[in-house]
Amino acid sequence: MSSQGPRVVLLGKQGAGKGTQASRVAEHYAIAHLATGDVFRAAARDETPLGLQAKEYIDRGELVPDPIVIGVVREHLEDNDRQLVEAGFILDGFPRTQVQAVELDVVLEGDALDVIVNLDVPTEVVLARIAGRRVCVQCGTNYHVDSPPTEPWWCDKCGGHVVQRDDDREDAVMRRLELYEIQTLPVIQYYRRTGRLVNVPGQGDSNDVFAAVVAAIDARWELRR
């Protein structure tokens, strides 16, 4: 029997707009938005053993190993947000490897995913988006070289200095994008083999992208209702 809302995984490169689209999708369907970063922070705040282990890797700037990622997400899905999961959800930032994708299907058991949306944006586009990003060191407000604060480079909100973060520099971004391609290609292939993957172009107006994402979700969700 279908859930009250769709069960969705949103894939996409850094800078593809996943966070924005996932938030809008969650609001549109009145479902839970489960972002991996938020799940990790909640587990660390609650001082769960796995949450504290994940925090150690994150604080060192290292990738969190699959067993820890899977364990944290499993706990979150099975315990904290089980009622929300049963009502539908959108996962943002997980799974990132094929091992995680396979394990997610195991965790969900009969509550299968309705659709996996791959927000497809060319590497050169996301590179320009991220490398052009600037951030206020005091309040964290984001700007871009194409949309700078009124007085470059001082924040319109708090007057703080607006800078480019080290991890937003072009060489650092390229390393992250290359790692994403290596990790995520098997995930995309896994979901394509199961017939659940839909590619949605992520360029252009944000409202047009959102409409395309919703249309993709509705088309697959209707098959299971």
How would you sum up this structure, described in words?
By secondary structure, this protein is of the alpha/beta class. The chain has one domain (7-224): 3-Layer(aba) Sandwich (Rossmann fold). The protein has helices at residues 18-29, 36-45, 49-59, 66-80, 82-86, 98-108, 123-131, 170-193, 206-221, and strands spanning 7-12, 32-35, 89-92, 115-120, 133-136, 142-144, 162-163, 197-201. A five-stranded parallel sheet has the order 2-3-1-4-8. Strands 6-5-7 form a three-stranded antiparallel sheet. Strand 5 and strand 6 form a beta hairpin. It is globular and about 50 Å long. The protein starts with 6 loop residues before the first strand and ends with a helix. The relative contact order is 0.17.
Break the fold down into its secondary structure elements and pairings:
Elements: E1 7-12, H1 18-29, E2 32-35, H2 36-45, H3 49-59, H4 66-80, H5 82-86, E3 89-92, H6 98-108, E4 115-120, H7 123-131, E5 133-136, E6 142-144, E7 162-163, H8 170-193, E8 197-201, H9 206-221
Parallel strand pairs: 1-3, 1-4, 2-3, 4-8
Antiparallel strand pairs: 5-6, 5-7
Helix pairs in contact: 2-3, 2-4, 3-4, 4-6, 6-8, 7-8
